[in-house]
Design goal:
Strand order of the largest sheet: 3-2-1-4-5-6-9
Radius of gyration: 17 Å
Number of strands: 9
Largest sheet: 7 strands, parallel
Helix content: 40-55%
Shape: globular
Order of helices and strands: EHEHEHEHEHEEHEHE
Number of helices: 7
Number of domains: 1
CATH superfamily: NAD(P)-binding Rossmann-like Domain
Distance between the termini: 40 Å
Bound molecules: nicotinamide-adenine-dinucleotide
CATH class: Alpha Beta
Length: about 260
Amino acid sequence: MSVLDKFNLSGKYALVTGGGTGIGKAIANGLAEAGADVAVTGRTLSTIEDTAQGIRDIGRESIAVQMDVTNKKSVDEGVDRVIDTWGKLDIAINNSGQFGWIDGVEVDEQDWDRIMDTNVKGVLFCMQAEARVMIPCRSGKIVNNASMSARIVNHPQNQSTYNTSKAAVAHLTRSLAAEWAPLGVKVNSISPGYTVTERTRNASHVAPYRDNWNRDTPVQRPAETSEMVGAVIFLCSGASDFVVGHDLVIDGGFSLW
Ligand SMILES: NC(=O)c1ccc[n+]([C@@H]2O[C@H](COP(=O)([O-])OP(=O)(O)OC[C@H]3O[C@@H](n4cnc5c(N)ncnc54)[C@H](O)[C@@H]3O)[C@@H](O)[C@H]2O)c1
């Protein structure tokens, strides 16, 4: 097998949470381009169906699976649907996330629960459901979408709850990577830096910060969603079989300073 063959995902069945928009959509498309069939999951059927149709248009199989990651029953049913359709799950990308620029003294219980329930509890629920079907096969790759905010304190905007949630994702990744590697399931994470999505491209709340972020990023620009894809394909492929519990930072150097 050539080294490039190791990156080929043909014959693999994948699931992406929050795959209807932004980074999740780019990852779902990228996995399909690398050869995988992809279940696109999310809460809004129209957006996930749109991504799924795009994947079918390039000749791969795809299903749109409605799933709210904060609801354990919904997550379990979503993974069951993938197994009912394809019989196995090889790759899972836990990408869904909630944001919040809220000053620490203003964070209320509702903000805390919204962000922590999605970013931490939601990732745990997904990982559990995915591992439950991967462990009996003694094979599988799970990649969580953390953030550079797992290891730095962003500024000038205040986002302590989000940062805390992403630090939890990175450490949950390491903890379950150690627990599940002996069972054949490899768990890693990516940590994007500032990445332009449909949601943020023209958002007025983001505009005042753009110059700061670009100045503080050694490559002096934000990432495009497509720039997250290569790292994910690597972590899902045979090329990374000895990589366990790694957090692959993709931030244009932002967290170096
Ligand atoms: N864009 C960035 O600058 C950036 C940087 C670092 C990390 N991230 C992470 O990347 C991931 C994707 O974010 P994005 O930037 O593409 O923004 P986005 O808003 O386009 O994506 C978030 C996705 O999560 C989904 N989601 C939210 N709550 C959910 C729930 N309860 N159940 C199921 N799905 C739910 C949304 O519907 C959406 O599809 C997030 O985890 C985010 O924290 C983004």
